[in-house]
Structure prediction request, 282 residues.
Amino acid sequence: MVDMLIYLAAALAGIAFLMALYRFVKGPLAYDRVIAFDVMTIITITCIIMTAMITGRGIYLDVALVYALLSFMGVIVIARYLERSS
Amino acid sequence: MSSLLTAMALVIATAAIGAAFVAISVNRISIAILAAGAVSLLASVLFLLLAAPDVAMTEAAIGSGLTTFLFFFVLGRIRGGKYD
Amino acid sequence: MQTLLDIIGGILLVSGTTFLMLGGLGLVRMPDIFNRIQAGTKATTLGTLLTLAGIGFMHPEWSVKLLLIGLFLLFTNPLSSHVLARSAERSGVDKTPKTRIDAFAEDHGDPS
Prediction:
């Protein structure tokens, strides 16, 4: 029962990741790609936490913590650059 | 459950190839830097799936955070002309 | 008791990843930048928080670290979406022709 729920959750997260990747590859404007990068980062945090749950190692959560702090900084730097360059 | 980790690694490796393709095919430098940051981010998840959390943390901090920040700082200074 | 907590955590996990999937669908289907920001950050923030709650039910000994991750996401994620939306608005990105009400343009005059 719980294994089935975990497989279903991983499949849904994989579909979301592939949709964000489609927008990242295709996206007509620069802002589309930045938004897709942001969404990919958030889904990646979910994937890291699910990996920590599957393998049962709590040390992996620290990587998710670093991600949650750093992705935000990258998006803000890119948005400020695009705002100034236009 | 290890088959689930293998499937996750396959999806993330496919996404890394797609982001690298974006990095070499787009004609704006800022998007290429963003795509290189995305490749680094996905590579750190692959390191994590290979059971190396310390390497993954370093890759996430330096490859995806510091390198993107530094490239955009320099690009804002030099005003790259028609390809920015 | 443990199986009950596991089942509650699994249901929260599936609902959270459903919100992630809906956010990705909105990212593909929505017509312009601002709608994509709306779909791509709000839905995924809720989905990630639900996923964190579900894993907190499955492993109660990790709950402090999961709470910290959720707190960081709750601070940083709306901030990055706001910075993106402000940057897109100031650099004059085209809106979709289906836009009915533009309150920013009514308050500040037409930027073009």
The first helix of chain C runs from residue 2 to 29.
